[in-house]
Amino acid sequence: MEMGRKHIPALLLTRVKMGFRSYRLCQAIMFNCSFPQPISLASRVSHEEVKKWAESLENLISHDCGLAAFKAFLKSEYSEENIDFWVSCEEYKKIKSPSKLSPKAKKIYNEFISVQATKEVNLDSCTREETSRNMLEPTITCFDEAQKKIFNLMEKDSYRRFLKSRFYLDLVNQASSTCCGSENQKGAKSPTLDCPLVSQCA
Q1: Rg (CA), the chain
Q2: I want to staple 57 with a disulfide (CB 3.0 to 4.6 A). Which of 6, 33, 107, 155 is the partner?
Q3: Where do the RGS domain residues begin and end (predicted)?
Q4: Residue 140 belongs to some domain of the structure
Q5: CATH code of residue 146
Q6: Do 87 and 143 meet the contact criterion of CB atoms below 8 Å apart?
Q7: pLDDT tens digits for range 3-41
């Protein structure tokens, strides 16, 4: 006998809905399709750029739209803490004032690395201990090793799945359709897709 909806655990239903919502939100972001949230354009992404995202993880997350799509994909897998940590480290390295390093470092550590971290990332014990020691006197490079480990983890695991997911494949198809549709237009510029702010996908 088929299991009724009322017998499905509420948590499972919530997670399914969250995953679908992340996918719909990412579609809205990448294609500027209709979505019940205001979308403001910040940049445009070309067909060539989309193809470059399949060449390396670095190409993907160095582009605002690529980062947004990848983050939405990770969110659907409940592992967005990895990209959140990577982004936080990138922002941390841009800090100019020495007085702001320590409080920001502690915030990142408490959120992603400590035993009681709310979004704990998967680090080996040696890297975790090294990073913990770095907290005694935080420097601009105190998260470098941990960030490198998380990048490598995403590169070997989630990035490969992302390239096979509908988050990326739908974008490739959309970009390809846009490209083909403009080939016969004399003097047409390189086709692009509208890309709103990355924060829409957070």
Answers
A1: 20
A2: 155
A3: 56-172
A4: yes
A5: 1.10.167.10
A6: no
A7: 444 443 444 344 444 444 544 555 444 444 333 332 222
How far apart are the C-alpha atoms of 143 and 128, rounded to whole Å?
10
Between the CA atoms of 130, 134, 140 and 146, what dihedral angle is there, to the nearest 10 degrees?
A: 30
**Rounded to a whole number, what is the distance in angstroms from the first to the last CA of the chain?**
40
* Global pTM value: 0.72
Angle at 19 between CA 16 and CA 25, to 5 degrees: 140
Q: 82-133 pLDDT, tens per residue? A: 999 999 999 999 999 999 999 999 999 999 999 999 999 999 999 999 999 9
Residue 98, C-beta contacts closer than 8 angstroms, at least 6 positions apart: none
Given its phi and psi angles, is residue 13 left (phi above 0), alpha (psi -120 to 50 degrees) or beta?
Answer: alpha
Q: Tell me which residue range forms the domain holding 92.
A: 81-156
Asked if residue 92 belongs to a domain, the reply is: yes
